[in-house]
Amino acid sequence: MIVDVALAAGARLGEGPLWDPHAAVLRWVDILPGLVHRFDPASGEDTSFEVGEPVGTVAGRRGGGLVLATASGIFTCAEDGTGRTRLHTVSTDPAGGRFNDGKADPWGRFWGGTMLEGTDGAGAFYRLEPDGTLHTVLTNVSVSNGLGWSPDGRTMYYVDTRTGGVDVFDHDPETGAVSGRRRLVDVERGWPDGLTVDADGNLWVALWDGWAVRRYTPDGRLTDTVELPAQRITSCAFGGARLSTLYVTSARVGLSEEDLARQPHAGSLFALDAAVSGLTPGEWAG
Ligand code: ZN
To answer: 235 C-alpha to center of ligand 1: Å?
Structure first.
């Protein structure tokens, strides 16, 4: 597969790619400087707004606007970042962490999890219902990361990066209830980070310190490795008119000058033609 540099973004911690089919743009975040980006592949233009604190996730909202999960909690805002309204204050235990990866599901719920750098088990994983209530789904989470759902909605995939693999849950799309957590994939090349699920139900998993995105079947068999010219691959999402372009984010954070000299594309947004389509991204229904 041919990998293009869609945007030489130089992101410190590029994350959370999300295709917005209404505007035909890719939203993504640079977590540490607290930037929410909007990349228009038609023009190549990328703009951003500042949140004023680290931001782990941007999600869409039915009827317009965005959901943001930040260092201090969960907010709604307009697409340009104005009109920010806090829904919930959330902190790690001990405090000092932030929201990391999150996503809206096809049934209108928003899911996201937290982390505290350098402290295992300080985070949690949450589900925000359309009525605004926030449920704690998991505690004792270290680095809450990728998530996705099978096309039939009966399975949820979840990564706590520090566990070194991808887990699955049984998922009830009627209620959002999850149960029966079990290991699907052990990742032996770097660390599993963000993920997305394609229309055939396969998983595409970004590998932090793994220089790649890998594809796995729903039963956990490795079928493809997409090599990328950056070490810290953070997440991926399908976009474009036919949802057949895989957009991949990456990071520069923590790399030495020597490392960065060897990987000038670190922090870029990559794009590749995946020869398969993604699923329509979910939006929070609240
Ligand atoms: Zn991540």
So the answer is: 6
